[in-house]
Each structure stands twice: as structure tokens, then as C-alpha cells.
Amino acid sequence: MGLYKEESYAWSNALYKASLGGFPDNYSDEKQFLSQLKKNVTVVRYTFGEAVAGACRIMGQVDIVCLYLLIFEHVQMKQLEAHKLLALATTFALFCGALYMSLNFKHFTLDVVMDRLRTLITLLLFGYGFIPLIRTLTTSISTDTIYAVSISLFFLSLIFHDYGMNAPIVSTTFSVNLSFASSIFLISRVENDELAFYLMALSLCAFCFWPRLRNTIFQANEYFLPPALLALLCPVSIILVYEGLESLPLTIIHANLHVFIVLMCPYLLVHMQRYKNTIHGPWDEASLSQTLKILPDRPF
Q1: Tell me: the pLDDT tens digits for 110-138?
Q2: What is the dihedral of CA 45, 46, 48, 53, to 10 degrees?
Q3: How far apart are CA 169 and CA 199, in angstroms?
Q4: Are 193 and 135 spatial neighbours (Cβ–Cβ below 8 Å)?
Q5: Range with the lowest mean pLDDT among 21-35, 151-165, 266-280?
Q6: Average pLDDT over residues 33-40
Q7: Which candidate, 3, 86, 153, 167, has a CA 20 to 30 Å from the CA of 176?
Q8: With contact defined as beta carbons under 8 Å apart, do 185 and 196 qualify?
């Protein structure tokens, strides 16, 4: 004697249904098994323009990292003096601050401004106080090891970075910590505290404050602003690679990296979308959303 009668009840893929009493968990209706097969139900199709805009976000952050590394290299080669580095960090900080205030002008009150100033002063004082410790933190470790670890941490930060696009791998806190840790490793190879402090302030703006501000700006126009920003960063980074490192092969590689990420990767994504083939049917696990669609008026 069976536990259920197929002719009495209509089976459906639901978490709970009163009329499904008696069906085992591994039951599937042979009549519905193939008739309810669906393909690519949840697949999102991207256009080439959307893919390029997303790639520009990624490449823009890569350029920010490259520019920071180039600035550090100029400091190490004594081609960038302390007052110039201070002017660069101050200009970037004022630009970010002015842009942030213009975007959030309606929310600014005297209490908010004072709170932001206290936070900024606290960060600067703590940073300046710990610079002697940070600068001598890794004196017993070889420079090659420091550089290798820094590059690895920057690479990992790019993987987990928040580009303003929904992805399960995104972790803003983890990415910021990785970037800041990498910059601290590099700062430990600077000769004096003044340059180290300016580099730390610059890294705080570039890797902590700027990404959040950038994502807010991109919300105004997700398809035009990312390529526009990259159009500004790309020539600067390529020129600095050529003039700072004096290496034509590295410059060519850096330029080709832009072409590959911004143009080739989106083209491959759009081209390979046609081969996407996911199937769905009664064999899928029942979910609450599916059950509510089947039984919209039945209380659980």
C-alpha cells in the first residue's frame, strides 16, 4: 500500500501544501518532470556598453593603485620632495572633501561639520604619532619581501573591492584593510617620518575615502561617468609609468592592460553569453518565494 495516491492529488514544487500530504521528499511527478523544464530563467544579459562601463570601474581602481605605487617609487628615487608630496596629498584631500560636501550639502549642519573635523583631527594625530613606529616596523624584513607582500595585498584588495556593483565577493572593509596594510608595508621603507606621514595620508584618501565618494558619483550616470574618469586616469598613469620607471616594455604592458580589461573582456563576456545554458525544473529545491507564488493566499 502506497503512502500517497498520484491520481488524487496534484503535486507541485512547494515547501508546504496541505494537499501534498503523503508525498515523500524525493518524489517527482514523471508527467511534469520534462514539461516544466525551463532554461536560463535567472540569466542576466549584459550589453557591450554595460560591460565596458563595469570594466572601466575596475580599471579605474587599478590605475589608482598604480598611481600610488608610482608616487611611492618617485619618493624612493628622491624625485618627489616632501613639500610636493604634501601639496599633492592636500589637493587630493581638499578635492574629495569639497566634492563630498557638494553631494551632501543638504545633510550638513554645524554639529555634523564639527564631528567630521574631530574625526579628521583624531586620525591625523594618531597617524602622526604612530608614524615612527610604522616606519621602523619591518626593519628586520628584506625589502624584496616587503614589496612582494605589498603587491599581493594590493592585488587581493582589487578582488574584494567595492566597485559599486552587486557581487557576493565584495567586502569593503576587507579591501580597505588590505590596501591600507599594503601601503603601511611600503611606508616602512621610507627614509623619514615626514614623507611617511604624507604617504599614509594619501593612502587614506585614495583607498578609504575616494572609493565611497566615487561610487556615489557614479550613481548619477552609471554608463558615462566610469569611462570619463578612466579617460582622465589612463593617460596620467601611462605617462607616469614611462617617465617614472623609464621602461618602454612596462609602459606597453600597462597600456595593453587597459585595452584588454576595458575592451576585450567585455567583448568576451557579451560573446559568451549566448553559450550560457542553465536548466530549471521540478528537481530544483523548493524555496519560500516559489511556494508563495504557488500559494499566494494560503497562510503558513
Answers
A1: 777 788 788 888 888 888 888 888 888 88
A2: 180
A3: 29
A4: yes
A5: 21-35
A6: 68
A7: 86
A8: no
Distance from the Cα of residue 223 to its chain's centroid: 17
Contact criterion met (CB below 8 Å) for 234 and 120: no
C-alpha grid cell for residue 171? 567586502
**Residue 200: which of 103, 280, 93 has the closest Cα?**
93
31-45, 153-167, 260-274: range with lowest mean pLDDT: 31-45
Residue 35, pLDDT score: 65
Q: What does the DSSP 8-state code read for residue 263?
A: I
* pLDDT exceeds cutoff 80 at 10: no
Task: Give the angle subtended at the CA of 184 by the CAs of 178 and 188, to the nearest 5°.
Answer: 150
How many residues are listed for the chain in this entry?
300
270-285 burial code (b ≥16 CB/10 A, e <16): beeeeeeeeeebbeee
Strand partners, 39: 279
pLDDT in tens, 217-238: 888 888 898 999 999 999 999 9
Q: Which residue type does 239 have?
A: I
Residues linked to residue 38 through DSSP beta bridges, in sequence order: 280
If we measure between CA atoms, which residue out of 142, 144, 176, 136 comes closest to residue 157? Answer: 176
Spatial distance between the Cα atoms of 160 and 158, rounded to a whole number of angstroms: 6
Percent of the residues in the chain that have a pLDDT greater than 90, as a whole number: 31
Q: Do the beta carbons of residue 242 and residue 72 sit within 8 Å?
A: no
Count of H-run helices and E-run strands, the chain:
12, 2
Matching residue, cell 594618531 = 126
Strands 38-39 and 279-280 come out as antiparallel
| CA–CA gap between residue 57 and residue 262 (Å, rounded) | 9
Going by C-beta distance under 8 Å and a sequence separation of 6 or more, which residues neighbour residue 214?
60, 164, 229
Pair 96, 213: CB distance under 8 Å: yes
